[in-house]
Amino acid sequence: MEPIDDFDIKIIQELEKDGRMAYSAIATTLKISNTMVHQRINRLIEHGIITGIKPIINEKKLGYDWGAFTGLTLNKDQDSDRIIEELKQIPEITECYYITGSFTLYVKINAKNHEHMRRILYEKIDNIPGIAKTDSIIELGCAFKRNVSL
């Protein structure tokens, strides 16, 4: 893919303000054609720069008052693909990262309360074959979360 240009960056910045913004409104704001906005967004999606336009959910407003970052130690790192597929089946796990250091994987868990968190850890994650141990850090709230600056 050719590098993104100033128009791509401005389109992305407009979508960050409001992902529901009509393409025609973006075109008007940037003084470009509606067709150009459509083509640019489609190209950015095709090349994986934009991976979706979806709502940002405040889990706490939905009753998920507990969050944890949990490191997973695997018996064999080569089992990670299978284990990740099983982790995807646990809806309370919202993020999963490959990392270096003491763990193979690091996941973000959202739970409604401490009992819900215990069930996720002990009844769901610990029952996945190949996970040797978990180590969790409870989060007390997100100070900020953002995309990289363009």
TrEMBL record:
<keyword id="KW-0804">Transcription</keyword>
<protein>
    <submittedName>
        <fullName>Lrp/AsnC family transcriptional regulator</fullName>
    </submittedName>
</protein>
<dbReference type="InterPro" id="IPR019888">
    <property type="entry name" value="Tscrpt_reg_AsnC-like"/>
</dbReference>
<dbReference type="InterPro" id="IPR000485">
    <property type="entry name" value="AsnC-type_HTH_dom"/>
</dbReference>
<dbReference type="InterPro" id="IPR036390">
    <property type="entry name" value="WH_DNA-bd_sf"/>
</dbReference>
<dbReference type="Pfam" id="PF01037">
    <property type="entry name" value="AsnC_trans_reg"/>
</dbReference>
<keyword id="KW-0805">Transcription regulation</keyword>
<dbReference type="InterPro" id="IPR011008">
    <property type="entry name" value="Dimeric_a/b-barrel"/>
</dbReference>
<dbReference type="Pfam" id="PF13412">
    <property type="entry name" value="HTH_24"/>
</dbReference>
<keyword id="KW-0238">DNA-binding</keyword>
<dbReference type="InterPro" id="IPR036388">
    <property type="entry name" value="WH-like_DNA-bd_sf"/>
</dbReference>
<dbReference type="InterPro" id="IPR019887">
    <property type="entry name" value="Tscrpt_reg_AsnC/Lrp_C"/>
</dbReference>
<feature type="domain" description="HTH asnC-type">
    <location>
        <begin position="4"/>
        <end position="65"/>
    </location>
</feature>
